[in-house]
Amino acid sequence: MEREISHAAYPEPKQVKEIKIFPKTI
Predict the structure, then answer these.
(1) What are the DSSP calls for 1-26, one per residue?
(2) What are 1-26's pLDDT values in tens digits?
(3) pLDDT of residue 15
(4) Helix (H) and strand (E) counts for the chain?
(5) What pLDDT shows up at residue 26?
(6) How far apart are alpha carbons 15 and 18 in whole angstroms?
(7) Rounded to an integer, what distance in angstroms lies between the CA atom of residue 13 and that of residue 25?
(8) Any idea where the domains of the chain sit in the sequence?
(9) How many C-alpha atoms does 18 have within 13 Å on its Cβ side?
(10) Is the pTM for the entire model greater than 0.70?
(11) What are phi and psi of 6, to 5 degrees?
(12) What one-character DSSP code corresponds to residue 10?
């Protein structure tokens, strides 16, 4: 179950990279 929650809470790796680059977007 944790994997499903993590996958839903965290987008694809590419999106995570963008979020790290643009934290203000969140």
Answers:
(1) -HHHHHHHHS--HHHHHHHHH-GGG-
(2) 455 655 555 566 666 666 666 666 55
(3) 63
(4) 2, 0
(5) 52
(6) 5
(7) 16
(8) 1-26
(9) 8
(10) no
(11) -60, -45
(12) S
